[in-house]
Amino acid sequence: xxxxxxxxxxxxxxxxxxxxxxxxxxxxxxxFLNHFLSFxxxxxxxxxxxxxxxxxxxxxxxxxxxxxxxFAFEALRVLKxxxxxxxxxxxxxxxxxxxKIIERNLSSRFKVQVGDSEHLAFPDASFDAVxxxxxxxxxxxxxxxxxxxxxxxxxxxxxxxLEFSNPKSFPIKQLYTFYSKNILPRIGxxxxxxxxxxxxxxxxxxxxxxxxxxxxxxxxxxFKHAQxxxxxxxxxxxxxxxx
Length: 243
What we know:
alpha/beta; Rossmann fold; seven-stranded mixed β-sheet
């Protein structure tokens, strides 16, 4: 079993609580750092991931670990969904998302609330699709979270999950490892004032069961079909599960 990676060494605090604290700490700088540290490629990843749902044409979407809402905003733009519900354990991130919702006059179509990905407060088969961007890596119990995602999707619906992965080929693997361990944490600390947040990121990626290991977890959760689509030399992967 892989070692459980947590943002901080807080005695008595589980991963879920620590992740919420971390995102509360960096919420105001999160969007800027995401785009800056990925050289803006994260925007392209989101567009490609959401585009995989065009054939399904979901009208009712749940965005798990919605953060500041960028994945949901892209879904609204591309898919023209009627309604998106975004949940997150970080009130700080949701506060930023809510500000953006109001600015874009989308309050009638995009609503956010505090929610636990491993105990979704929705009935079975409530949504046409469930999306997650850079969130499943932070689940305390990954399999339980995937089980819940499958439960709330209607038969024939899909989940689209965007997550960092570990590049396998030379020299991308070596360059990415150097960047994520030596450069990313220093820049992240400079702007966010949270020393651990951007050290936790590469550590959690290394431990994440990416590729075929993750699609196996999707199948175990109850999805009939699961596939992975590596992006940008394997730095990120789009996972699609069909119920």
